[in-house]
Structures are given as structure tokens and as C-alpha cells.
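Handoff note, outgoing to incoming analyst
You'll be picking up this chain. Sequence as last confirmed:
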Amino acid sequence: MIRIAIVEDEIIYQKKLLEFLRMLEKDRGETFYIETFTDGDEIVENYQAQFDIILMDVQMRFMDGMSAAEEIRKVDTEVVIIFITNMAQYAIKGYAVDALDYVLKPISYFPFSQRLNRAIDRMKKRETHYITIKVAGGVKRLKVSDIYYVESQGHKLIFCTNEEDYFSTGTMKELEKELSRFHFFRGNKGYLINLEHVEGMNDGCAVVRGENLPISRTKRKAFMEALSNYWGEVIK
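Most recent structure output, in case you need it:
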């Protein structure tokens, strides 16, 4: 069962989204559990990461879709968010809250189904992987997707995650080999970056959680190619 939330204050579009989801349900042979909300504040209140996909209207009366998505991302980094909007420029802003895609109003079934199929395929491909690192007094099991980047300082490795920074020992070379299959890229001698969390590029730096991580000149082209390939793979 795929759990989907519709957050839309215009009833005509809410009904249209429900209709299209039921059509897609039959086309794919899937079972959808669908819940509807009429404003961003309704889904944010008591949100407990209970959905796989959220179809989020951008412009709503009390809490707009961007603000609602920001609040949701504080507790749920996995849910797939697709914005529903009549202005394409909101798609750019959507990267800040890791939105997968957007659907333009007026909504028609073909582009809608394409985007939902992408979302469902991405969701099903997603698997949880862990690595175990040595920390002071023992070991720590980290979810790979929670790691933003790893910084090397001498023989010390700093794992920067969505919870806190963890200090470990080891070599960047060994870690790079271990994490290469999880879309990590060595930006320079000091940083191993998770491409999943790269928000963009700024003056030769990768932007990760608002921080500028320098990419060496010799690795810049390869890094951009790896990032472009990753982004392309995510939205297929």
C-alpha cells in the first residue's frame, strides 16, 4: 500500500487529484491510501512521517506549501514531495525542501501520471543502508542517507549528519571506497560529500545544508558530472 496525502485548498483540484490517483491506482495495479487536507497547517499539525508521497499545493490561505514542506522536512527526510502550482518558478524554490517535482495547473492526467510514476518508482527503489563507525567508547551505527558529508582532519574523520557530528578514526581512502556505491564523491582531500544532500553549486563550492564545501579545481568537472548524473537518476 502506498500512502498519499493531498494538500489542496481548492476543492475542484482536490477532487481532480483524487480522480487521477484512482485512475493511476488501476493503471499500476497498486493500492493507494489517500488522505486529504485543505491547508498546510492541517498536515503539519501532529505530522508523524505517515505518508510516502505528498501532493502539496503551493498557495494556500493559512500556511503555504513551502512553509509546510519546511516543517515536514524537520521530521521526515524520506517522504516524496510534489508541488501543485500555477507558477513554474516555484519549482526552483522546491529544491530547498528537496521536492522531487511539480505539477502545473490546470492539471491533466498524462503529465500527472508521469510524475507520480517517477515518485512511486523512486520510493520503491529507496533502501535503507547503514555503516558502523568507531566512536569514543564504542561504535555507532549510522544511516547512510543521514550523512551529509565526511570531513577529514589528519587521522580524524568527522561525520556530519542530520542529528549531530560524530568523530571517528580511519582513512578517507578506505571510507571513499566503502561509500562510493551510495553516491558519495570526494570533492577534495578534506571532504567526502553525499550527492543526495547537495543543494547546488556556488563559486566552485558544493552547497550542503547551507555550507559551502570547496571542490578542488582538478575534481570540479568530474564532480559536476557525477552530480548531474545523480540528479538525472533521481527524477527518472
